[in-house]
Amino acid sequence: MKTLIVEDDFISRKIMMELLTPLGECDVAIDGEEAVQAFRLAHEEKRPYDLICMDIMMPNMDGTEALKLIRAAESAMGVAAAHEVKVVMTTALDDPKSVVEAFYHGGATSYLVKPISRQKLMKEIRSHGLL
Q1: Which UniProt keywords are given for this protein, alphabetically ordered (predicted)?
Q2: 94 assigned to some structural domain
Q3: pTM of this prediction?
Q4: 17 belongs to a structural domain
């Protein structure tokens, strides 16, 4: 499984890397702009991500905006909905407005509220057929 971790907080990034690295290749982006660049590069290299775990609140470009650009890029590339990258949005705030924006309007596959445990993350990954 190839994963992109998008997280501006160092400790959260480190935790996600420790949880996901045993499952396969992991790349890291520190904001939404880097996430979109990494997503496009992976497609250009014909090695797209299977999973993106992306924080909602980040500097420069937040996760919601990055997700919209990723979904628009998939649409422009002709990626069928069934083959879109699975995107799990993560948030420290149990803020219904942010979650609704990311989940329903942005095209997120699902979301998790931090702190994220190994058990919660693995359950989420399994539910998307990635394990």
Answers
A1: Phosphoprotein
A2: yes
A3: 0.92
A4: yes
CA angle, residues 111, 115, 120, in degrees to nearest 5 = 55
Predicted confidence (pLDDT) per residue in 4-17, tens digit: 999 999 999 999 99
pLDDT digits (tens, 9 = 90+) for 64-114: 999 999 999 999 999 998 899 999 998 876 666 665 665 555 678 888 888
Give the residue numbers spanning the domain of 42: 3-118
Q: Check which CATH number belongs to the domain holding 29 and give it.
A: 3.40.50.2300
Is position 76 within any domain? yes
pLDDT score, position 107? 78
Q: How many domains is the chain partitioned into structurally?
A: 1
